[in-house]
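Can't attach files on this board, so I'm pasting raw text. These are the components:
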Amino acid sequence: MSDRLKQARQFIQALPHSVALGMDVVDLKDGTAVVSMPYSEKLIGDPKTRVVHGGAVSALMDTTSGAAVMSHPSNPSGTATMDLRIEYLRAAKPGQTITTRATCYHVTRSVAFVRATASDEDSENPVATATGTFTVEGKR
Amino acid sequence: MSIRRPPEPVQLVKQRRDGVLRALVEGVPYIQFLGIQFERRGDELTGVLPFSDNLIGNPILPALHGGATAAFLEVTAIMTLSWGLIWEDMESGALDVSNLDQVHLPRLPKTIDFTVDYLRSGLPRDAYARARINRSGRRYASVHVEGWQDNRAKLFAQATGHFLMPQRD
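---
Top answer:
Structure tokens for the assembled complex are below.
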């Protein structure tokens, strides 16, 4: 495993809520982050369909977007979510891992703008998309 | 002159409403995982998210994870909508409250979109949320949710979302 990926894993391991949801960093580089979240019984939001709760997808979107901001070449020393909007395109297939890719596409002195897409194992048809704005703490 | 029916004993009313609410909340694994509870005053619901280390997103501050906050507000919105849908059937007796497993509960509304506005960082303390249904039609509903911690007037987050209502069969 590369040092970069190791560092990225440590970033997620330091976030108790993300660990509790079973998240794992797949890639993190230059303002783009990829984080996965395996299916688990505790994530179920609809007992009849066994589909993962939207809130769990929100948490994954938020984590991945924040990681994307932190990995931006402008090197922010910290970030916090200001606004996050999620569109739920379709139900994720029960049993499948959800993977989110977030891109921090613009950073000013105080604000970072992010777009993210979440997919299950059918990566051609996303389950949700998100747009977020994040605070930027003093650059290193 | 018609004979008026005696009012239903208050304990029976409370037992029925609390029982339905419990079945609704306990049926969702993710609500149990986050530890969210609901308090009821008549038909008004307040979501309660007791603090737990598992909810932390920034260990240095420490602060609640934005995802935990979003999930809490979304859960409160869905439960408030669902509670509104059930209320009439529950009160009229159309809903069989003697057998409240998941099979008899109506389907849950589905989130179409959800926008969270983070106003201040979530403190390592209990959080509360209440939802207001701005519009509830046959197919769509629009809901606003407010989340606060120590001070009711100082929201730490608010959200608004659209939901697809379950179709009645």
